Amino acid sequence: MNPPANPPENAFTDLPDLALRAYGGAVVAASDESFAEKENLIRPGRPSFRPHTFGARGQVYDGWETRRRREPGHDWALVRLGVPGTVRGVVVDTAHFTGNHPACASVEAAAVDGYPAAGELRAAEWTEIVPRSPLRGDAEHVFEVADGRRYTHVRLNAFPDGGVARLRVHGEPRPDLSIHEGLSLDLAALENGGLVTACSDAFYSSPHNVVAPGLARHQAEGWETTRRRDGGNDWLVIRLAGAGIVKLAEIDTTNLVFNAPGWASLTGTGPDGETALLPRTRLLPDTRHRFRIEDGPAVTHVRVDIYPDGGLARVRLHGVLDR
Q: Which residues belong to any copy of the Allantoicase domain (predicted)?
């Protein structure tokens, strides 16, 4: 297994967006959404805009927009993270809001396990992770977060009112795995704490997609590399949810019809060193492949090699945590 000895640290925006709707995030409450719905804050993809498109509430915006406040205070939106974790940075995007964006914003975070209702969340203990900061219209505002604690919810505060297109909460997943005690689980899944920590190439799409929840709906929701011309092969490394024994591997090339890899192999590393989980094995395009893995030692990371290049929709590594 040969990832770089000391891979360069990525900017926090290379980490998964823990609030993303596709990962299970939800905007559970907002002070107001008179002009545009709060749910738009955590939608995947770049915000869209069609000028001179008016509805009953005025110009249609792909974002969250509140009315003009005529009383003291400020607007806010409560977001449940799809995957609890350590927040490394926040992006507040005011794309297409020009003249109707908030003057300032701040972000707070809280750790409330279980299934709290909106009223319970408002009474929770909140920690400011992004101080009140000025915003510009039609711009991405990037804020690094130094707080290393685990959080389950964030609150976006808009001063005093206005529109925000997207809220991105990038970080490292840290879910509560106690519910899986004695049960099997997907050790690679982002929602269980898996994370892609290195890859050879991410030209067309993010390697984090391979451990995302659900099935890829189209090619862009997987991981795809450039065409190699050097005789080598592409790869990625997945940090598992915890040290565990992999018993079943799923390598999914769904939607990759003419750009699937020809072959793939899996190599694990753990306290006992490297172990071959799956030898170089032929793959078919647009297919969910499942391979049983012979019992072996617990591993903490798995390297996925694809030959020579191409893309994968998902990688699932089902097994049990090592106590």
A: 24-173, 193-320
In the chain, count H helices and then E strands: 1, 21
Let me know if residue 137 belongs to a domain: yes
Tokens read off for 140: 């991405």
Q: What's the pTM?
A: 0.89
CATH assignment at residue 27: 2.60.120.260
From the list 80, 86, 78, the residue with the least C-alpha distance to 15 is 86
Residue 255 and residue 169 share a domain: no
In this structure, the answer to whether residues 142 and 155 fall within a common structural domain is: yes
165: nearest Cα among 66, 45, 39, 63: 63
- Whether residues 36 and 161 share a domain: the answer is yes
The three-point CA angle 153-157-163 to 5° equals 115
Contact partners, residue 5, CB within 8 Å, separation at least 6: none
Domain count for the chain, please give it.
2
Q: Are 18 and 213 in contact (CB under 8 A)?
A: no
pLDDT at position 38: 96
Structural domain for 159, as ranges? 14-173
∠ at Cα 237 (235, 239), nearest 5°?
165
- Between CA 279 and CA 276 the distance in angstroms is 7
Confidence of residue 97 (pLDDT cuts 50, 70, 90): very high
Q: Is the peptide bond before 271 cis (omega within 30 degrees of 0)?
A: no
Assess contact for 161 and 67: CB atoms under 8 A: yes
Residue 2 lies in a domain: no
**Are 163 and 65 in contact, with CB atoms under 8 Å apart?**
yes
